[in-house]
Amino acid sequence: xxxxxxxxxxxxxxxxxxxxxxxxxxxxxxxxxxxxxxxxxxxxxxxxxxxxxxxxxxxxxxxxxxxxxxxxxxxxxxxxxxxxxxxxxxxxxxxxxxxxxxxxxxxxxxxxxxxxxxxxxxxxxxxxxxxxxxxxxxxxxxxxxxxxxxxxxxxxxxxxxxxxxxxxxxxxxxxxxxxxxxxxxxxxxxxxxxxxxxxxxxxxxxxxxxx
Length: 211
Fold this sequence. Notes:
DNA polymerase, domain 1, 211 residues, alpha/beta, HAD_sf
């Protein structure tokens, strides 16, 4: 195993709550009222475009393309502000230990966060010394930036979309979370705290032995 790619959201920290906080600020600024906290669960796991659709629907707002881009830019600005509160206490339990173990075994590490701000998040969480690539591209892009073969990498994923993309890139996949959503992963665990370096190494070895 030469490289590992970890999703930021759900593997390293919970960014859904910060994305929702930024949407609450957009709602207050644009429509004069916030989004109730009870709606946070409905925004969990959504892309920014999908979240915007929910905001527009709630306030019966127009859907002009120019308005969408302005609102997305505004939300991104607010998101950058709330990220300032992110710190080591927000790390998912067990992930720092795993990252250090990967680093100690000379495994190159990329973190993947399509919504942007990956460098900022890495620094806020004090992981920058362990991370080789903080990117927003495809798995293929991240593998290229790590400068390791795809077959030498594992990917830790939390959703079906990322699992499919990682499988298509020929990465060894570890699904973390809902087993039904992560069928097709080379290995599954229910939570980040179950992950160990030795486990990742064995799954990677076994996967290639069986091919």
